[in-house]
């Protein structure tokens, strides 16, 4: 057995564990040890006048930046109008936020350029959503529950094909056939060197729905996220934990010594060729 042991010098808490049975929306409290950037001077969007041409969604990886791997894009004016409405009606939260890692990154393409945001929409119907500007993650805006429900439905119905996942650089598992396995090897090499790195594994169900497993190595620990919110035949969960060890035995990789019990990680990079 080959074991890669990652030593932790501090106690790390679980990040953003969500339950499909929870009716509460995103809450402004500390659930993450990810560094939150200091707010920059930003110009707030005038939602009554802005003309949005396109909305782009990515699965968020960290505060203060937009994940370039696009999950989906909205170009129909009816869909765009619902996003703009949700943001326009949102109510500013007084005080500074200290909140879990964002669920999605959202980009509005306008005539003047781009406006970028982090958003939280939760998993349960009736939960209020939340957004921040990417450049100011300390100031939050609460979205109405009915608007959040609509956005959750729109995002949840976006297709994410194996071809798109491959193009984004995901390590893709289509019923045992592994694509982009070199990206997994690269992740391991960087981790062994103690260099921060990340990899996204996207597996597909029989029905063709994606299930995401994200591993982010920060130089000390592995942040592992399991996300099956786009599996339309399963119970939606978006769960995160921190793990000390990545172990290999007979070609199969597993995580151990994790902070919490969530769907376990098991990956065989050479399965099915």
From TrEMBL:
Question: Keyword annotations for this protein?
Answer: Signal
* Record domain YhfM-like: where: 70-155
For this protein, the record's Pfam families field holds: DUF4362, YhfM
Q: Does the keyword Iron apply?
A: no
Q: Where is the signal peptide, in residue numbers?
A: 1-20
**Full protein name:** DUF4362 domain-containing protein
Species name: Cohnella herbarum
